Amino acid sequence: MAQAGWGRLAIKTMIASMTGYGQGTARVESVEASIEMRSVNSRFCEVSIRQPRSLNEHELDIQNLVKQTFARGRINVQVQVDTNADVTLPVKVDEKAARAYGLLLESLRLAAGISAPVTVDHLLKFPEVLTSIEDSDEGNAWIWEAVQHALAEAVQALWKMRLQEGEALQRELADRIDRIEEKLNAVDTYAPERIEQARTRLHERLEELMTDERLNPERLELEIAVLADKLDVTEECVRLRSHLVLFREAMQSDEPVGRKLNFLSQEINREVNTIGSKANDATLAHLVVGMKEELEKIREQVENVE
């Protein structure tokens, strides 16, 4: 049988979801292993395993093999092993034990003066003569080999499903980032006009007060400049646009980016909130609300990204 393969599929420009299902089966000699895997959201990679007693010593090995592929998600692994295959019986003769018991019984027959011969029925009364495949070194080796191949198949199936769901997530996230950028472009266009309008209104109002000789024209110009600076959202727009670029770049990575996208979402939210606090204008406030609506959907979906 081919060597079981591990590691991520070499597929770029695609993020992965944390939810999915995978199944795998494999057969080695008289052993058939079947594995089902289910994955849901989690901040870390948590692997829970249900397996036969004969695999207890390999529980950590199974966890490590799964974690070679997945970085995040709560993954439930269910392992079933069938040694009752139709090719070979699930038990085998322990030849050393059979010979030893045969010699022992023969010695006992002679010592007791019994004329009847030793038969197979007599030997079968000793459970050590027949051993289960699961209890033999050879059987354990078959079981573990079958489990490894079935696990590799299940892992790849789960990873493919997570990629498929991730592809849908990526399209939605990219679409919402585009919508935020559209509104940001509108903010970029409208914000300077708003500042100039505010400056003009202030000048008009202040001209009415200029007849008061106590008013200092230079001081008034300084106050207008300060107010204009408080209304200016240029820096916030530049930083927000930079975060959108980084968000898009992260979605093109073939590495786990869920935590990074979550962090960038927080940074985007910070800049949008700052723009909103400087809005003081119905049109600008409406654009900010639209960006927040898209961002809320993004933050919900980012929670599903590995």
The parts where pLDDT drops under 50 for at least 5 residues are: 8-13
Count of extended strands: 6
Cα separation of the termini: 32 Å
Principal-axis shape: rod-shaped
> What Rg do the Cα atoms give?
36 Å
List the helices and strands and how they pair.
Elements: E1 20-28, E2 31-40, E3 45-50, H1 59-67, E4 73-82, E5 91-93, H2 95-112, H3 120-123, E6 130-132, H4 137-209, H5 217-231, H6 234-251, H7 258-277, H8 282-302
Parallel strand pairs: 3-4
Antiparallel strand pairs: 1-2, 2-4, 5-6
Helix pairs in contact: 4-5, 4-6, 4-8, 6-7, 7-8
What does this structure look like?
By secondary structure, the protein is an alpha+beta fold. It has a domain at 165-302. Helices cover 58% and strands 13% of the residues. A four-stranded mixed beta sheet has the order 1-2-4-3. β3 (45-50), α1 (59-67) and β4 form a beta-alpha-beta unit. α6 runs antiparallel to α7 (258-277). Mean pLDDT is 83; it is low at 8-13.
